[in-house]
Design a protein that fits this description.
The longest helix has 29 residues. Strand 1, helix 1 and strand 2 form a beta-alpha-beta unit. The mean pLDDT is 95. The protein has 248 residues and is of the alpha/beta class. The two termini are 34 Å apart. The chain contains eight helices and seven strands. It has one domain: Rossmann fold. A seven-stranded parallel beta sheet has the order 3-2-1-4-5-6-7, with helices on both faces.
Length: 248
């Protein structure tokens, strides 16, 4: 366990699977109170909750759409009723869309922006009041390397992640005087369900573009998130840390 995180409450959006799930398990081992969230995958969410309860981890599972501000307000109230305030916020929830921008319709890009970007606005807005009052807190946004350079056939996804990166830098400046740190992890190709659609040929071609010749794992993202939350990174804020195995 990490003493600086013992008893801290961490809220991880989109934590029933993939990167969010790995982050929840990693922070649980560090001695944190874990708040799980999913918008639709109720079964996976409850399975995660059960696992943590069996490990004697204080846990709260919340089914809710983080792109909806009113829904987020209700979830933060539940967190306050159970654990008090959020000490660490991990904005992880996200969806992707692969295809030509010209083939997308407004409903598709509005949904993607709402889930990927508005969710970060919503949860950050609701978390910072108490963080400012306590003059402490850490916000970690899960972004993408495509937010840095853009990706063909993922234009809106890239825009949403670029927005997260700019928001991260701006909020770090805004919240720094209150002792709150805000950073982002720009993930490369990670072994998640989002990337499960690649066939073997596509996987091989992608791996050849990565210096380490492999995809990253959710656990590797989780370890970096854990570092960003603890005292060891107390002078680190406003950074977009690219975790891509040397792809870019």
């Amino acid at each position: 366990m990490i003493l600086s995180l013992m008893g801290k409450t961490v809220f991880i959006t989109g934590s029933s699977r993939g990167i969010g799930r790995a982050i929840a398990l990693t922070f649980a081992k560090a001695g944190c109170n874990i708040v799980l969230n999913a918008s639709k995958s109720k079964e996976a969410l409850l399975e995660m909750e059960k696992r943590l309860i069996e490990d004697n981890v204080p846990v709260l599972a919340l089914l809710g759409d983080v792109s909806d501000y009113d829904c987020c307000k209700k979830m933060f109230q539940s967190i306050e009723d159970t654990f008090g305030n959020v000490d660490i916020l991990v904005n992880n929830a996200g969806i992707s869309h692969i295809g030509l921008f010209s083939d997308m319709n407004p409903q598709q890009w509005q949904k993607l922006i709402a889930v990927n970007l508005y969710s970060v606005f919503n949860c950050t807005h609701l978390a910072v009041t108490d963080m400012v009052r306590k003059k402490s807190g850490s916000i970690i946004n899960i972004s993408s390397m495509w937010g840095n350079v853009g990706a063909s056939c993922e234009a809106v996804y890239s825009a949403s992640k670029g927005g997260i990166d700019s928001f991260t830098k701006a909020m770090a400046k805004e919240l720094g005087p209150s002792g709150i740190r805000v950073n982002a992890i720009a993930c490369g190709v990670i072994e998640t369900q989002m990337n499960a659609s690649f066939d073997e040929e596509e996987r091989k071609a992608l791996a050849e573009d990565i210096s380490l010749m492999r995809f990253g794992t959710p656990e590797e993202v989780a370890k970096l998130a854990l570092f960003l939350a603890q005292e060891a990174s107390s002078y680190l804020t406003g950074q977009i840390i690219t975790l891509d195995g040397g792809m870019l």
